């Protein structure tokens, strides 16, 4: 993946995460149908992928 594309995808993911966070703050009645452990695992995987996309272009 090219440097510019990788960073663009990472920025879009960051904006999507921020939009989800803002929505979640306004709608506490909405929740996922599974336990909090699975939710935290998904959040962690998403954050890790986003960080890898931001960091990947700096490697040679």
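-> sequence recovered:
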């Amino acid at each position: 993946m090219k440097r510019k594309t990788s960073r663009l995808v990472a920025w879009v993911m960051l904006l999507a995460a921020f939009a989800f966070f803002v929505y979640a703050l306004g709608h506490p009645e909405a929740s996922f149908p599974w336990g909090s452990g699975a939710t935290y695992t998904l959040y962690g995987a998403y954050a890790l992928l986003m960080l890898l996309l931001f960091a990947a272009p700096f490697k040679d």
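The radius of gyration is 14 Å.
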